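Closing statement on the glutamine sub-project.
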Amino acid sequence: MNSDSATAHASGLRPGAGRPRQPYLTARLQGFGTTIFTEMTRLAIEHDAINLGQGFPNFDGPEFVKQAARAAIERGDNQYCRMAGHPELVTAIAEHQERFYGLRYDPMTEVTVFSGATEAIFATLQALCEVGDEVVMFEPYYDSYRASVAMAGATPRYVTLRAPDFGYDRGELERAITQKTRAILLNSPHNPTGKVFSRAELEHIAELARARDLLVITDEVYEHIVFDGEHTPLAGLPGMRERTVLISSSGKSFSFTGWKIGHTCASPELSAAIRCAHQFITFCSATPLQHAVAAAYRAPDDYFTGLTRDYRALRDRLCDGLARVGLDVLRPAGTYFVLTDIRALGFDSDVEFCRMLPQEIGVAAIPPSAFYSQSDDGRHLVRWAFCKTAETIDAALARLQKLTPRGRPAR
Ligand code: PMP
Ligand code: GLN
């Protein structure tokens, strides 16, 4: 008996049996496994495949933004900054909201900076949901939503967006709301479908939120990548500013996804609650990058129109190419993702298709069934990212020519 276990005996504690109690992963997180993005990027690297899976640009954002980051580091802006966000960045975000949407937020009390939209979503749910509350979300959903809801001890309720236009059934949304519903989590422009929620849909959601006294958490990270229609923040609808937590991120708008600088805009009371969670999750996000993102949000209008124009060309390039390969393309109105129906080529399992693709064809994509909980609609779909250079997209399309139909088309 070593002295530790002798002490344990003397104190009445059970000596350790060698390994700590199993399982390590709490019940809250069991079933979440490894994200599909990590799994598919790993397969892409293993097989030297062109990665049209995980949504990150294979090019850098603007030089003036990188320069602002370098300058901040050089001048020594490298220590913790204000917990709720550097004054320069929250001011730039407030200006941006007013410039693009006419929404006025007080930078110091209503804008908060996070380590990416992912942390903003997590902190918001931690702050605003009691254990046992319900959160309504549309499926397919961005995968962190379900895990963040689970970690907050809340319960997700799903409403399925149906192909080909990914509309939802109004009755289904109304029935998903119960006495326990605290919030609706809405993502528009929507990953992975590329749907931009229409004004009528936003009005319906707002009407339900007001009538049933719900909060709405809006994930607007693709706000500047819209090709058809326009992005309308729900917070701008009548009576919605006070019950909406608007979330966005610099990652997609400025092509620096690895910087992880995101934000919320919400009333002072909602912001105070969210900040309470944020102060114990990260406290503050990378200071020099906050300076750089402040410069980014102050970019002239032609930066933003250029981003949309460039992504529109990439969307058309990839969509046209995928159609030539024989896939049914569900052309997106926004985001940098496109879904295709793989039944056109006789495949009927997105997961099998995406596990085969890197090794046999040399391209990686994402199986959307990872983003569904109640419907198996994702089984026939595959998500491709076009936040890649034209050369990369062409090289992937050339490889995809090898894709031959499997069996008889399933419909
Ligand atoms: N929401 C959606 C819909 C996304 O696609 C992503 C991106 N990856 C995020 C949130 C996370 O954004 P961030 O990288 O800023 O955490
Ligand atoms: N948002 C990115 C996508 O949808 C990936 C983010 C991540 O890897 N967690 O592809």
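Residues 63-298 form a domain with the Aspartate Aminotransferase; domain 2 fold (CATH 3.40.640.10). With this model delivered, the sub-project is considered complete and its resources will be redirected to Aim 3.
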